[in-house]
Amino acid sequence: xxxxxxxxxxxxxxxxxxxxxxxxxxxxxxxxxxxxxxxxxxxxxxxxxxxxxxxxxxxxxxxxxxxxxxxxxxxxxxxxxxxxxxxxxxxxxxxxxxxxxxxxxxxxxxxxxxxxxxxxxxxxxxxxxxxxxxxxxxxxxxxxxxxxxxxxxxxxxxxxxxxxxxxxxxxxxxxxxxxxxxxxxxxxxxxxxxxxxxxxxxxxxxxxxxxxxxxxxxxxxxxxxxxxxxxxxxxxxxxxxxxxxxxxxxxxxxxxxxxxxxxxxxxxxxxxxxxxxxxxxxxxxxxxxxxxxx
Length: 294
Prior knowledge:
Blueprint: E1 8-9, H1 32-39, E2 51-52, E3 58-59, E4 61-67, E5 70-73, E6 86-89, E7 92-103, E8 106-119, H2 123-126, E9 128-141, E10 145-158, E11 164-178, E12 184-195, E13 202-215, E14 219-232, E15 241-253, E16 261-274, E17 281-293
Antiparallel strand pairs: 1-17, 2-3, 4-7, 4-17, 5-6, 5-17, 6-8, 7-8, 8-9, 9-10, 10-11, 11-12, 12-13, 13-14, 14-15, 15-16, 16-17
């Protein structure tokens, strides 16, 4: 994934407010990890940037990404009628190992990390912590694009102190990112998501695109859009069909920052369509972004 995607929000401000808060709401935790992936552009079908040796060839490398986001969230409960707004703290840590050309034509990427959603309102109901482990192989097809095959595991913990283990996920992903241009990126993927909780089992089809609306020596304005269709297959969600739309507009000034640090300002709009009425919601997250990569 491109370096700018590693940026993680750390401060927030917004002017949009969604009224109609509801007492004793239950938080929807079904896609919160996917929202974190979206903010980091995790599902773009491309590997981490490679390190190059003195001979100009990519070589195995380690990278560490750390973030401490703070975002304004207009609908933290993901309630169909809106909910009280809140400030969201979303710290993250990820360690990645990249091995280009592990076997001829295939690159390996391994990563492990943790991230969390920590809210100023109703933390015992809203807070979620996640442990992640990923293994992906990439194959570039000249003149076509990049094919990737991945396995991702996620363990989810809930509660103010993350002391309640909720569920685990095993994700099997196939993705393709066609070669288009430096200013436009597209990715298509299919996934089966397994879980010990039947209601979390589903098939997912995803398409996303990243466009540089403006790219000058002083500033970059980008637009990133993702649509994820989910077909649930078991438990209480059997027969449920969702379409989650996530739209991001980002503004990145070209500042004289230390190596490995990036800054931007972003607004992200989430909207989920569903044939289950309780699953529908709209929310906005807004804030500056500061990211580190070592």
